[in-house]
Amino acid sequence: MNRNLHQIFTVSVVAVATLCAQMVTSARADGPVDLKVGDAAPAFEVKDDSGQDWKSSDHIGKKVVVVYFYPADMTGGCTKQACGFRDDMKTLTDKGVEVVGVSGDSVRNHQLFKKEYGLNFPLLADTEGKVAEKFGVPMSKGEKKVETKIDGKDETFIRNVTIQRWTFVIDKSGKIAAKNSMVKAAEDSKAILELVEKLK
Fold it and tell me: Could you give all domains of the chain from N- to C-terminal order, each with its CATH number?
């Protein structure tokens, strides 16, 4: 009887140890994403500023794609960054580069932001932070507001996810060609132009 109990106990200990090992492995696999240069870009789908689905599979692998994450529409640094890309868009387009901006703002916020500054590239509404998560970009959750004026009217921009300012360049093979987690907002588009010159 004691022998049987010992066997049962031994089997139970092994089973628990195996389960714990699986849980640790799973926890590591589910940890924060840390994309590196040379890694395949993650696939994603999200609403753009027109309210349509923007699918990465329709763009990545066809052109060089710049995906830049920024905290909020209608704020100082983010406006400078967006306007920099706007002003350099023809040069970037001529070089086969597509640019998309991503923040936690709503489709409506993006529409107003684009109209106010004449932005000429898509803005993606990552309202739940799912795209940022796939790219490993840090974010904070909780309602934030930006009070602003558009066409002389008071507007309140509300978002529930605030994403940090990171920029990724995805090459034509669909791999991460560059990752910048220390972006200088006003200089981002110029930095991208210099980088694109070096890409084949």
Answer: 40-198 (3.40.30.10)
